[in-house]
Amino acid sequence: MAHRKHARTLVAVALLVGALTAAGCGRRSTHASSTVTVFAAASLTEVFTSIGEGFEADNPGVEITFNFASSSALAGQIRSGAPVDVFASADAATMSRLTDAGGTTGAPTTFARNELVIVVGAGNPRKITSIRDLADPDLIVVLAAPQVPAGRYAAQILEQAGVTVTPKSLEADVKAVLTKVTSGEADAGIVYATDVRAAGDEAVGIAIPEAANVVATYPVAIVEGAPNPAGASAFLAYLTGPKGQATLASFGFGRP
Amino acid sequence: MSSRTTRDRLPLAVLGLAALAVGFFALPLLGLLWRTPWSSAWDVVTDPITRAALWLSISCSLWSTAASVLFGVPLAWVLARVEFPGRGVVRALCTLSMVVPPVVGGVALFAALGRRGLLGQYLDLWFGLRLPFSTAGVVVAQTFVAMPFLVITVEGALRQQDRRLEEAARTLGATSWYAFRRVTLPSIRPALMAGTVLAWARALGEFGATITFAGNFPGRTQTLPLAAYLALETDPDDAIVLSLLLISTSFLVLVGLRDRWLGAAASGTGRSVAER
Questions:
Q1: Do residue B216 and residue A147 have CB atoms under 8 angstroms apart?
Q2: Residues of A in contact with B115 (CB under 8 A)
Q3: CB contact under 8 A, B233 and A183
Q4: How far is CA A220 from CA A39, A57, B161, B179, in A?
Q5: What is the pTM (predicted TM-score) of this model?
Q6: B6 lies in a domain?
């Protein structure tokens, strides 16, 4: 009896799974051209989510799917054959590595700029005022890992400023650096100016002098073999057009 | 006749499904081996950062396994033997970290043991002890996710155990501690070994809670899984070599244990039960 009940449950589950899979496939095949898959750098999370909403409002029936992670991780996924339409990177180096490997169609376009700042917790409890303060050994400083753009920029800035910092951790992406600071586990970090802005009251940004700072440029390109090339071009046009640029500016990004 | 065909068909189906399961595990491993850049593998393995990560992985996972045994066996014993209200809740609580995504587990550890955490702020204030971003933090994160595997295995064995053996020992004048040490523990040795190996393997491969709670710094908190993940960002080939290093380390230990300890433990129990 118990066995039969078990078998019946199994059959029910199998049927349910089958039905769901069929439904999923059906939906994908009828609307295949209306989904645009965008892989974008972690630092673009908030602004691209907003731009995506604007794009969807302007293009009824088109749906945007985002995947936010460190640019290098995303480029790796694209090289491994992830079905992606658009790739937006936080640095030119990561994009050109993908372009050189034949991973994009056409030359990438720069659509935004960003600068880096020192981030500290609300109220700046350790009274940090300059990049030199980060050398204090009592301070818990976290940076992004040298494998990701934000980490490369941070290393470049510290070198240009002639400051030696012993970070407690090299985080896997820039948002992880921000979280460690806003949660109070770290005293300071180096992140994008737009990250601090997105964090609202929880974080304070301290400007890095222009001589030592680095300007991050954001290139975007259509991925080779994009499942939806028409949708990809439409998204690129929106991003580099007046509406996309206005949204980028409102989130603190600089013009290309 | 018809019953024989059913009997014949069933093992075939079982065998077929089992073969599929083996393929399911073997294929990804073969894929890794196929992609491995053998020419540069040695350079990656002998890199000081890799060696530091390997050493950190081995030592931290052994420490967290030791902690899991030290606290997990008594916990399993209490859960199996002591009846108290809310036992089910306590059991669920102590195995929760198996279900929680490890990254969330890391966030929870921050909330508890971080610099601003529930307990962590006092650890810092009274003892100057800061677990985040430290090697001890790696051990804490690994123990948090690994110990339930040992607790569940050992508790299951304790529940199935014939309690009359313990009672017999007690009636013959053994103290409860003596009975636990000389009767209970030996009879659950195979399960204890299996649980220990499970917990160790889980600790060795731990990623999410470690990178969240302990951060990532070569030589201090960067274990092999973290090194492999970060290598994936820039050099997927290196990541594959690091993964293989992790797999072969655990494979060697598991195979070695199976022959030396698990086999001996299993036959040892058989003998002692027979002697009795």
A1: no
A2: 140, 184-185
A3: no
A4: 10, 21, 64, 70
A5: 0.80
A6: no
